[in-house]
Amino acid sequence: MSDDKAIWPPIDPISAGLHGRCPRCGEGPLFSGFLTVGKRCANCGLDYSYADAGDGPAVFVILIIGFIVVGLALWMEVTLNSPLWLHLVLWIPLTLVLCLGALRLIKGVLLTLQYRNKAVEGRLDLGE
What sign for the dihedral angle of Cα 76, 79, 80, 83? Predict the structure, then answer.
């Protein structure tokens, strides 16, 4: 991740991440598969080897989607007193769809923010 502000204009990391675009040029694709990060940008040649979001996207998805789905299921149970099979038919597919959709979006945003803030693995400063 070199300092390349003179060549490339600043890109909004949130917008680039949500659209799955390169964090440097905003044009090339960030992903080569559904959740697989590509090797490099097809437009500007940025090497994506720095990109490692770890478990961060999954944690955010679990917390956000879990809050929404559990809240809706609780509201439905208290309000309508619906049977268990109806909960299973409604909430399991909704959870899967929302989680898969949100996971790619949040991973893209975290990776573009990682590039923008020059976040790298921690290293010891030995004073050399």
Answer: positive
* Section 89-112 average pLDDT: 96
Specify the residue for token string 């940008």: 41
Inter-residue contact 92 to 1 (CB < 8 Å): no
Contacts of 22 (CB under 8 A, 6+ apart): 11, 16, 28, 29, 30, 41, 43, 44, 46
For residue 98 the two structure tokens come to 């929302």
Torsion of CA 56, 58, 59, 61, to 10 degrees: 120
Residue 56 to residue 62: CA distance in whole angstroms: 10
The alpha helices in 1-128, defined as continuous H runs, are 13-19, 56-80, 84-116
pLDDT of 54-68, one tens digit each?
A: 899 999 999 999 999
Location of structure tokens 């989680």: 99
User: Which pLDDT band holds residue 4 (cuts at 50, 70, 90)?
Assistant: low
